[in-house]
Amino acid sequence: MSTHVVPNVTCLGCGLLCDDVAIALEHGRIGGMAPHCDRGRAWFGDGQVPAKILVKDATVSFDAALAEAIALLRPAEGRALVVLGPGLSTGAVRAGIAIADRLRATVDTATSAGAGEAILAGQRRGRATSTLGEVKNRADLVLFWGADPTATHPRFLERLVAVAGSHVTGERTVVSVRIGDAGGPTSPTLELDEAQEASALAVLRGLVLGRLPAATPEHAALADLAARLASARYVAIVGPGEGRDARSSALRAEGLIALAQALNRPTRCTLISLREGGNRNGIESALSWQAGYPFAVSYATGVPRYDPGERGLHELWRTDAALLLGDWRALDDTALAALAEVPTVVVGPRASDAPFAPAVAIDTGVAGIHEGGVAYRLDDVPLPLTPVVDGARTAAMTITALAEALGPRGAGA
Amino acid sequence: MSRGTRLRIRGGTVHDPANGVDGAVQDICIEDGRIVASLPDDAPALDARGMIVMAGGVDIHSHIASSSCNHARRLLPEERVPEPAPPGIAGGRSGSMASVPSTFTTGYRYAGLGYTTVFDAAVAPIMARHTHHEMDDTPCIDAGFFTLMGNDEYLLRLVDQGERGRAKDYMAWLLGSVGGYAVKIVNPGGVEAWKTPQRNLTGLDEALGSSKVTPRAILETLADAANGLGLPHPVHIHCNNLGLPGNAKTTLESMQALEGRRAHFTHLQFHCYGEGGGWKSAARDLIAHVNAHPETSVDVGQVMFGPAVSITADGPVGFLLHGTSGKKWVNIDVELETGCGIGPLMYKDKAAVAALQWAIGLELFLLADDPWRVVLSTDHPNGASFMAYPQVIELLMSRARRDEALAQVNQKLLAGSALLDGLGREFTLNEIAIITRAGPARLLGLRHKGHLGVGADADVTIYGSDAHLAQMFSSPRYVFKRGELVVEEGHLRHAPAGRRLYLRPGFDDAVLPGVKRHFDQWGTVQFDHIGVRDLPGAPLEVG
Predict the structure, then answer these.
(1) Whole-angstrom Cα distance, residue B509 to residue A67?
(2) A87-125 tens-digit pLDDT
(3) DSSP codes, B86-117
(4) Rounded Cα distance, B286 and B262, in Å
(5) E-only strand ranges, B469-530
(6) Do residues B340 and B332 touch, judged by C-beta distance below 8 A?
(7) Spatial separation of the C-alpha atoms in residues A91 and A95, rounded to whole Å
(8) Are A208 and A226 in contact (CB under 8 A)?
(9) Cβ-based neighbour number of residue A170 at 10 Å
């Protein structure tokens, strides 16, 4: 075994999907990455993943595990749940959705609880956004709204802000607004309580559109910010991508979208949501093109129905069996506890380590570490993945094998 | 029937205008997915007596498989209607029908109309990988896409520097790298301006910022490059000022700028509004130019009444429509190249502008001297769904149906419309075959498509003869895709994967170091990741 470097690897450690990463392999293990990034380093680890195939904690053959999975899933047709988690290539996701369609299952994303409200806000209002290159090349003012990518998306500033932009003349202005405990990467220009956030966004929008007088003393700080935004050539608003409770997430998301759209009257503006990694956007994208909806899809009646109010992981009482594809570690404790109550097949990285005693666990590699394919950046740009460590069973092939073993619709229990 | 087998389609009434066949009763023979001259007498046969036989439909301009389409799907969950998997199809998939159907549904529905080849008209280079994914999940049709280049920053720099040779090589590299089929120009220079305080370019000689780049320079450079490369389809142009009153002046100037060069002007109806204030038709002026210039071709972009969705790379148009409608709106600026605007639309027959748009489309068809160069599109889903094609065909074939519809629409802006002057033309079945398959295939340079001559792909659509024309074209009796039976008596029987239609034109790789420097400096995607690898099949020949 030798030491060598694999260049231009795409990292799924966060939603940026930096695709310029060099991975150093030492005796078959990942020994380092350049440029260094804490999130990325944690994502790649040493590249070693378990390779177990378990049925009720007993090691079995791959074929035996598939047979057991089929025995559990087929009778659950119409009452099955498929959960799509991170760590899958888009090809694996496509195969997973095909299984959900075949099983007339409810299919949801592992992260819909955190991301769903922002998606729904986008469905109510639309979006004003861009790919990341427009932040880099055009944004002369970057507003971080309750979001600090330093910890969550460590190379955001290096790649997109602290770098020359092809259309940015002079200094780029960076402004941070702190919301509660969530600050930005610079000293806050404005500090707001969480309870003030929605109204502040509404005021900013009113000021930008000239529907509120700028001279009101109570709005002085917001008026100053609105004036700076409106006088920039191209504004990038960077906000959180996921998290918090549903009501505040919805209000924030809708307020940010409305502000970004309004800013496109006096100037240009893009809103960037700092989504997490692992190909979350790819899952939503594939669900959208195959079913028409980005999450919370029920095939129970034989056709895709959008039911964002009753998401799969909240509706396990309807479920006779569950199929979790991807990395279970993205699920919250409530979801993990719920999965312990139903027979669950897990196919994905570290499936055998799942804490809820899956009925069937098939370990696979991780997309972008052990298998290739395509994953989506937080701005929905699809990027190729490079497998850097050999040997792990690929999720895409495993899920495809499961789909084929299930057979076509009506294959029976 | 599966590939590798034979079939004689016996005794149908054949409309194959590319081969000079206009309603002759004859057999069509299929072997190994191709049309052949003859088969042994004992070959399996399909009795098509009394039926109409044409090549499979070819859609030259649609929006079916792109990141923009996917954003449109996500934006409008409220309009989606669930659609079950077709019964009896192994691996058949459910989906949802809407202005932008889900992918599997798109393939099934196109096949159900007798269409077997479709091009997505606007794909940003860094989003090409997404389009290939969607096309992988769109069965039954051969598919390709046009690559957006009319606002490509590197290309605009070359235009500014007058580097036409390098522009040609760069375009060839980009087209081949992403697996595209043709060069698309959307609002030349205007989308780049949208990202700056300039916000748009409205005149053909208006400069982009302080550069020498003008819409005219972009059109000339890219048209010459595409023709110089010998691409099977010339530049596919969405002109400046789409949807604005008086825009026909810009459209005509754009056509005049490219006189003597092959060029295709798309969804002409949306660029066909006369000068002099207010809304009026300029169909006579524009179609007169098209009629007189054999190097020029168009698709119409027919509007039909009902819901639609604006999906455009023309960012400023999306903003304009949002401002007009007040409805929800998506804008996406795509780095180094293009933009994207999406929003719901509603064309009402009682709305004056919508009625004018509907009428202009029909005028363009009916005033065209040469249907080979004025072909059918609705700019799906912008003017209407592709599902409206049978209704458009009926309007073209039946003056009575057209007059009946005309009487129902708002007449306010129709003064001067050729329709009101009593345009009596009724398209023949052969002319329908031209504008729906033979013409688009010829304009696209697809030598094996759009006709039923020996060697052609055995993409065949058989209609039952029916006086109700819309019904006849809505529900073919049989559709064959490369010899496989896909539709039988209106039911989907088989859903084969389609073929990917893409090119890999040659170029001087001396251009690449400069291109790489550009992407390395200003891109956010590694240069080596621009190209899409592992495409299915092989590229089509160029030249």
Answers:
(1) 53
(2) 999 999 999 999 999 999 999 988 787 889 999 999 999
(3) PTT-TT---EEESSS--HHHHHHHHHHTTEEE
(4) 16
(5) 478-481, 484-488, 491-492, 500-501
(6) yes
(7) 6
(8) yes
(9) 6
Residue A403's H or E segment, with its range, is helix A395-406
- CB A255 within 8 Å of CB A202: yes
Angle at A155 between CA A152 and CA A156, to 5 degrees: 80
Q: Does the ipTM surpass 0.90? A: yes
In chain A, residues with a C-beta closer than 8 Å to the C-beta of B67 are 285, 380
- CB-CB contact of A174 with A31 (8 Å): no
Give which of B180, B177, B104 is closest to B135, Cα–Cα. Answer: B104
Alpha helices in B326-468 (DSSP H): 352-367, 389-397, 399-408, 429-433, 439-444
Do the chains contact at B334 and A124, CB–CB below 8 Å?
Answer: no
Contact assignment for B95 to A292 by CB distance below 8 Å: yes
- Give the pairing type, strands A126-130 and A106-109: unpaired
| Residue A365 and residue A373 in contact, taking contact as beta carbons nearer than 8 Å | no
- Distance set, CA B14 to CA B48, B429, B478, B480 (Å): 10, 10, 14, 15
**Chain-chain contact of A270 with B333 (C-beta, under 8 angstroms):** yes
Q: Any residues with CB less than 8 A from the CB of B534 and at least 6 apart, and which?
A: none
Q: Exposure string (b/e) for B73-89, b if CB count within 10 Å is 16 or more?
A: bbbbbebbebbebbeeb
How near does any CA of chain A get to the CA of B99, in Å? 11
Give the pLDDT score at A214.
Answer: 75
For chain A, list residues with pLDDT below 70.
1, 244-246, 311-317, 410-413
| One-character DSSP codes across A291-323 | TSSSS-EE-TTSS-EE-TTS-GGG-GGG-SEEE
Nearest to A126 among B75, B524, B529 (CB): B75
State pTM to two decimals.
0.97
